[in-house]
Each structure stands twice: as C-alpha cells, then as structure tokens.
Specification:
By secondary structure, the chain is mostly helical. Helix content is 73%, strand content 0%.
C-alpha cells in the first residue's frame, strides 16, 4: 500500500478540496492551515504529514490540476487519418477536462493567486500549459500534407485559444461549466475555424 492508497488517498483529496475552498474564500496570504485542517476534517498533524506549508499545498494543487489533463498529453498525430477527426479528438480531450467543476474551481483559485504572485504564476504556467500538444499535432499534420501551416506555434495557440475563449475563461469567472451540447458546439466551431484557415481544401 503506497502513501496515497485508501484510506490515505481520501484524506489527501479532502485536504486538496479544503485548500481550494480556503484559498478561494480568503486568498493565499490570509489562508490558514488551521482552517484548512478543520475544513478537511483532519488533524493538523495529518495535514502537515502531506503538506509541510501553504506554498507546498499550493504547488500540489497545481500538480493535481495538471494531472487532470493527462489525457491531452497522450494525443498524438496519426499519419494519414482524417485531420478533422484528429483535431476533434484533441479538442475533446481538452474539453472533457474543462467540463469538470473541480477543474474550474482549482483553475479559478490558481488564476487569482498567480495574478498577485509572479513567481507562483511562472511555476503554475509551466505545469499547466498544454499548448505544446496542440502545436505538435498541427506541425505533424502540416508535414503530412493535411494542413498548410507556416507557423505551427501560432496555429496551436490559436486552436487552444478558440476552445478556452468559450469553455474556460468565462467559466473561471462565473464558476460554471459548459453542458455537453455547448461543449460539442464549441469544439465543432473551433475545428471548423482551424480547417477554414489552414485546411488544404480551403486553398
């Protein structure tokens, strides 16, 4: 049994959830480890066993959020397969994660704190930015002749930006998530815009 196997995994999850609520309500500087332990219904000894400080707890939340996007990291371009299907699959790998209220809550907490702390911002950005997967997909598709892209980095930023403009940033501020139908429409529109701009048929 490892450190985070049941029942310890439950305590770990309780602490993360409690910390997100505390940071959202009080802000990072005013957050209290005592209140976090009370919210999580664990002893302070247990809390410090997992997280030695608020800073360590914050970094762990960033890692937890990053781990939620593991499915995106597994997406790779498949030579010769229809590019619309591949772009749709990649967009859904991102979109499914953004339909989780827990992800939006953690993201809101991280965004609010990183705006006040450039150091935390740099650390969080490095762990949470999955744009490289989108860039790699578009670059490989261009090399395979399915897209015509001079600047894959810019195109990758545009693609993920189209999704987040509807499915992430507004949700961070309103504290909600898109429905399945809304996400499907967002993904369909985003893929269509990319193919209209970069598709071989478009030229």
């Amino acid at each position: 049994m490892n450190e985070f196997s049941a029942p310890n995994a439950t305590k770990h999850a309780q602490i993360i959830e409690a910390a997100v609520s505390e940071f959202l309500e009080k802000g990072f500087p005013a957050a209290s480890m005592d209140r976090i332990s009370a919210r999580a219904e664990v002893s302070k000894r247990t809390l410090y066993k997992y997280f030695e400080s608020k800073e360590n707890l914050f970094r762990s939340i960033v890692v937890e959020l990053s781990n939620r996007f593991a499915e995106v990291l597994e997406i790779r371009y498949e030579k010769g397969r229809d590019i619309r299907e591949q772009l749709t699959d990649l967009a859904w790998a991102e979109g499914r994660i953004l339909m989780s209220l827990d992800v939006i809550r953690m993201s809101r907490m991280i965004v609010s704190e990183t705006l006040r702390n450039p150091t935390l911002a740099a650390q969080a950005q490095g762990k949470l930015d999955k744009t490289g997967i989108f860039i790699a997909m578009l670059k490989d598709a261009a090399e395979d002749g399915q897209l015509r892209i001079d600047d894959p980095e810019r195109a990758g930023q545009e693609f993920i930006g189209l999704i987040k403009a509807r499915a992430f940033w507004p949700m961070v501020f309103v504290g909600d998530v898109l429905s399945q139908e809304e996400m499907a429409a967002t993904i369909e529109n985003s893929v269509e815009m990319m193919l209209s701009r970069y598709g071989v048929a478009a030229e």
